[in-house]
Amino acid sequence: MGVRAAWTHEGPSPRASRRTGVRTLSLEVVLKRHRLCVCAAAAGFLLLLAACALYLPDQAAPQQQQPPPPDVTLLIWTHPFGEYRELPDCLQLYQIRGCKITDDPWAYPQADAVIIHHREIASGDAYLPPEPRPDAQKWIWMNYESPTHTAELWLLEGVFNLTLTYRTDSDIFLPYGYLVPRARAADGAPDGGQLSLSRRPRKRFVAWVISNWSANHARVGFYRQLREFIRVDVYGRAGRPLQGGGDSVVRMLRRYMFYLALENSQHTDYITEKLWNAVLAGAVPVVLGPSRQNYERFLPAEAFIHVEDFPTVKQLARYLLALRDDPARLRRRHLDWRRSYSLRQPRFWMEHYCTACRAVRRARGRTQTVTDLRRWFHS
């Protein structure tokens, strides 16, 4: 990644005394607050496929002769966005052994690692864990927002030992979604499935779902240009209401030929569920985000249409109209690839916890420090 010190043998972790402006509490105060809260609440695409293979269940890996590493305890310091989620059984869900996941702050002194979600620390809704940090304990920085929406990184230099994000160069890499060749896809794997290829023509043309409308966003400017040439059905807070249910977007998209998968900002590897919802539903994604080359690290070149493929928005609109009027061409150019892949979408945040726990277990006996968090994340 280019921002870390070399691996060393286990030793004391970075201390809070070097972190100006980062708030910490004593363990006693943290535990008292916790009790009060509890009472109150009651290389391209192939390289990416190889990387994603690391996150398939452990049973797919060959048996090792040496004894397995000892079990580890992973402490969830704050639940992301303040929303409690049931803690996972990593063995039952993902065939990941030797992991105990807990959100009990009393476990802090014994925890092998602490996973810390950035939003709560940056907003002041939570504090960093107390000092002194137990020797050999790893702190994991977890963040799934874009750099544009990630504040206060400068306060966290030298604090963390590992990163867990959607970026391929994270210490612990887990994207919003990824494809697996069908020949290698495991039956019954969590949150995965073969991609369908319906022969029935779709009657609706282009859809867009947006919940955070801002006139300053590039995606809003693009939409305003596109609607001058074709009709776009808009859903969400800025448009038509969606039907209830967690899969409401996917169900809606099954009726459309194309979906505008427009990210709120453009950064390396920031490719979210907007793209993967379209892929799952069988609508061709029209993407605005990082470069085409970056997208091609995650899926085949023909699986999407990049807005930068065309010199003008008008020419893009003409291309979409031509595909609408020629379903055979649409299938041949942008849908036939689906026969060869299955899609995996990790479950937030269960799979992230288990994947982090496995990484800590494998890295036992080694430690490092993230020394340039802001520069790396913005690169």
UniProtKB/TrEMBL annotation:
Fucosyltransferase N-terminal domain boundaries: 71-177
Domain (Fucosyltransferase C-terminal) ranges: 201-376
InterPro entries, sorted: Glyco_tran_10_C, Glyco_tran_10_N, Glyco_trans_10, GT10-like_C_sf
Enzyme nomenclature, EC number: 2.4.1.-
GO molecular function terms noted in the UniProt entry: 4-galactosyl-N-acetylglucosaminide 3-alpha-L-fucosyltransferase activity; peptide-O-fucosyltransferase activity
Pfam families in the cross-refs: Glyco_tran_10_N (PF17039), Glyco_transf_10 (PF00852)
Enzyme class: transferase
Main location: endoplasmic reticulum
Localisation per UniProt entry: Endoplasmic reticulum membrane; Golgi apparatus membrane; Golgi apparatus, Golgi stack membrane
Associated pathway: Protein modification; protein glycosylation
Segment forming the signal sequence: none
TM stretches of this protein: 36-56
A single BP term in Gene Ontology: inflammatory response
The family this protein is said to belong to: Belongs to the glycosyltransferase 10 family.
PANTHER family: ALPHA- 1,3 -FUCOSYLTRANSFERASE, ALPHA-(1,3)-FUCOSYLTRANSFERASE 4
The protein, known as: Fucosyltransferase
Organism the protein comes from: Xiphophorus couchianus
